[in-house]
Amino acid sequence: MARFLTPAKIGLLALIELYVEGVVPNEGIIPVINFLASNLIDCDLSTAQSPNNNSNNNKNLTPADRWKKAESTLRLVTSIKDFETLLSPLAAADKLPGRRLWDRFLEKLWGLDSLHKLHEFFAAIPGLLRRTKEELRRLGLEDEEGELGGRTRLGRNSPFGAFVRRAHVEFVRLKFERVMELWRVFVRYRQPTAGYWARRHPQHGGRLSFDQVLTEGEGEWGQKETGELAVVAYGRMLLPAVGLLAREEGGMEGGETLPVSSDDVEGLLEFQIEQIQKYGNRIPPQIRDRFRNFLKGSHTVPSLSHYLNFSDAWRSGDFPTSFDYLHRYFDYTMQNRDRLFYQYALMNLAIVQSDFGCHKEAVATMLETVSTARENRDTTCLNFALNWFFHFGRAHPHLVRELENNSMLGSGKETLAFLRVKAKETGMWILWSSALQSEAKLCLANGESVAVAFEHMVRSSQLIVERNMKTMMGAQISMAIAMWDRLGLSSMASMACQVFLSCHARNSVFDDELKITCRLAGLLAGKGKYEEAFAMLESLDQNSLRSARPNQYWHLYRGLLKLRRDLHRNNLPAVDTLLAQLLQTGPEDAEPDTVFIIDTLHIEALVRHRDFDGAFTKIDNMMANLGENNRDVALRIRLLIAKAHLFDEIDRPEKGFTIAMRATSMAWRALNIPLLWQAVGALANVLNSLSEFSAAAQLLLSVLPRVLETDVSFTAGTLYNLLADARMGQAGQFFCTAVSDESTELERQRGRRRQREMMMRAHAALESAYKYFERVEEVEKQAEVLAKMATVMRGLGDEGVSEGYAARYLSLRREVERVNG
C-alpha cells in the first residue's frame, strides 16, 4: 500500500493545475473548488452557511448525507467517474466549440504518457506555488506579479498549496519500485477514458497509447518484442489481443488490490470513528464492505481499524466481539506507551459492560479507571469517570450506595458541584454543561424550586451558545421539554420537540433524536393521534436504528404506545400478549423510568382484569422500592394517585382521602402541574363520595381550564366525568329541596328549576367527557358516559334521546365483547 500518492491524487493535482492556469470558467470555479476542498480537507461549500442559504439545504440533510464524504472518497479512489461528472458540464475558458473542461483535464492525464513524463509532472508542480522571499531575493525580483502575467499561484500555506508541497515531497521520497507501482496503477485508473480519448484524438488511439515509450519503440523493436517488454513492465495488466485489462465500475478485475494509500485509509478510519462517536450510528453496510476491500491491499492493519470494529460490534450488540476488538486495539496502541493510556481502555470497557448489563463488573472497572487516572494525573479522564459514576448511581442506586456512603464528596449535589468547578478549571465545557443540566434534573427529581432548575438551564444554554457545542443541544432541549411538561405546558414541550427535530437533530447524537421523537410521539398519543405517533416513530433513519440500544428503545417505546392504545380499547388479550413481552424488560435492559412506565401500565391492566389484590401488592412493592432508592418525587405521586384510583375501583373511594390529599400536597410543592390536576381529580372523586358536591364542582371548575393546556385527553375526560357526577349530586340536592314538605312553594319551584339546570350542566360535562374519551379510544369510559347520558336525558323527560344513547351503549358493549372474544 502506498504511503500518500494515488492515481486519484494525481487527478486532483492535475485539476489544481488547470485552476491555476485559468482554464476553469467563472461558473465552474465554485464547483471545482468545492470538489477539491471536500476531498483534501473536511469542508463542503455546498452545505456551508451563507446569506442565501442559511437553512434550506441543512434542513433537508438526512443521516445518510453524513456518510457522503466516505462514499465520495471511496468512489474517487476506485474510479475516475467523479472527475467526469464534475467537469463534463463545464465549458473550458478558451470557449472553443465542443471543448469542455473534461477534455482539458484528459489532456493533462494523457499527457503523462510515460514514466519520464510523470517525473517531469511532479518536478514542475512546485511552480504552482508562490515563491518564498529567499527565492525572490536569489532571482533579483521585488515580487512575482510581473512574471505571472495574470496567472494565479497558490499560497504555500494554503490548503491547496500544502497539498501540492506534500505531494511533491512524497514523490521525491519514493523508491523506484514504488514509483513504478504508482505509474502502473495510474495507467489502470486512467484506462476507462481511453475510448473517449481515442475518439477525440485518433492519432493517440493505438493499442499501447498509454505508454509513449512502447508506442515509439514498437516500430524499432517489432511488435512481438515490444509486447514481451510490455508484459515485463506491466505484468498481468496486459492481455495479448486486448491491451489493458478492462476494469469494472466497482473495482479492480480479479484479485488486484485497489489503488489506495495509507493516508486514505487513516483518513477514512478517523472519519468513520468520528461519525460513530459523534452521532452514535453504525457504519452503513455498503461503506463497511467497500472499506474492507480497501484493507485487503495492506500488509499491516492499522490499529484504529480494531477500534472501528470494536465500535461497530458494540453498537450492534455483540458483546464478545466488541470485548475482543477493544483488547486488540489497546494491546496494539500501548505496546510502547506503558500505562499512559491504560485508564481509557478501562473506561471504554466499563461503558461497554454497563451497556450490556454487567453492572457490577462495570462499577469495579470504573473504580480501577479512577485509581489509574489518579496515578497518571489525568484530570480529564478522572472527571469523566466521576460524571459517569453520578449518572450510573441515579439509574442503579443500590449498586453504588456503599460507595456514596464512603465517599468524601457526599450526596449527588456535592458531586455535581465538584464536577462543575473542576470542569470550569480545566476547560471541559461539555462536562460543565452536563453538570449544570444534571443539577437542574436533580432539582426537579427532588421536588425543589423550579426557578433554581431554570437558572441552571439558562447557565448551561449560555455555555452551549458561547462555545458552539452543537452536540449538547439534544440534552439541553430534552431537559427543557421535561421542564415544560412538569409545568403542564404541553404546547411548549411539543414546540421544543419540533424545534430540535427541525434545527438541531442533524448535529446531535441519534440517541437524543430518538428520545425526543419518542417524547413527541407520546404527546401525540396523549391527544389520541395514534397514527401520527406511529408515523413519527417510523420516520426515523433505518440505518441509525441498526444499533442495538436505539433499536431496543424504539421497539420498547412502540410497544408502550400500542399497549396504551389497547388498554384504552379494553383489548385485554392483546394487552396480556404485550405485557408478557414488556415485563421481561428489567433495569439491566432499559432505563429505570421506562421500567416504571411498564409497571404502571401493568397495574392498570390488573385493575381492568379486576385483580385488585395483585394491583395493590404491586403498588406497595413499588412504593417501598422508590423509598429505598430515593427516586424522583413524580414517581411517588403517580403511585399515590394509582392507589387512590384503586380504592375507587373497589367502591371505597373515601379510604383514599388522605392518599389524595398527600398526592395533591406533594404535587403542589414540586409544582408538577399535570400530576397536580390528576390528584385534584382524585380528591374531587372522594368529595363526591362524601356528598360534598358543591366543593367538588368548585374544585374541578377551577382546574379544568389548566387541564386542557396539558393536552392529555384522558385526564380532561376524567375530570369532566367527575364534574358531571358533582352536577348530578347537586341536582339531587335540589330535588330533595323541591319535594321536601318543609319547603315553601317558591323554594320548591326554585329547586325544580335548579335541578333541571344542574342536569343540563351535567349533560354538557358528559358530552365533553365523551369527546375526550373518544379521542383516545377509551371504550370503557365511553360506555360509562353513554349510560350516564341516557339516565340524565331520561330524568329530563327526553325518552327518544335517552333511547339513542342506550342503543349506542349496547353497540359499544357488543363491540368490546367481540374484541375480547
UniProtKB/TrEMBL annotation:
Q: Does the keyword Cell division apply?
A: yes
The entry sums up its family as follows: Belongs to the APC5 family.
Annotated source species: Podospora comata
InterPro entries reported for this sequence: Apc5, Apc5_dom
> What name does this protein carry?
Anaphase-promoting complex subunit 5
Q: Which UniProt keywords apply?
A: Cell cycle, Cell division, Mitosis, Signal, Ubl conjugation pathway
Q: Which domain of life does the UniProt lineage start with? A: Eukaryota
Leader sequence residues: 1-22
Q: Which PANTHER family match?
A: ANAPHASE-PROMOTING COMPLEX SUBUNIT 5
Please tell me whether the keyword Acyltransferase is annotated for this protein: no
Q: List each copy of the Anaphase-promoting complex subunit domain by range.
A: 306-395
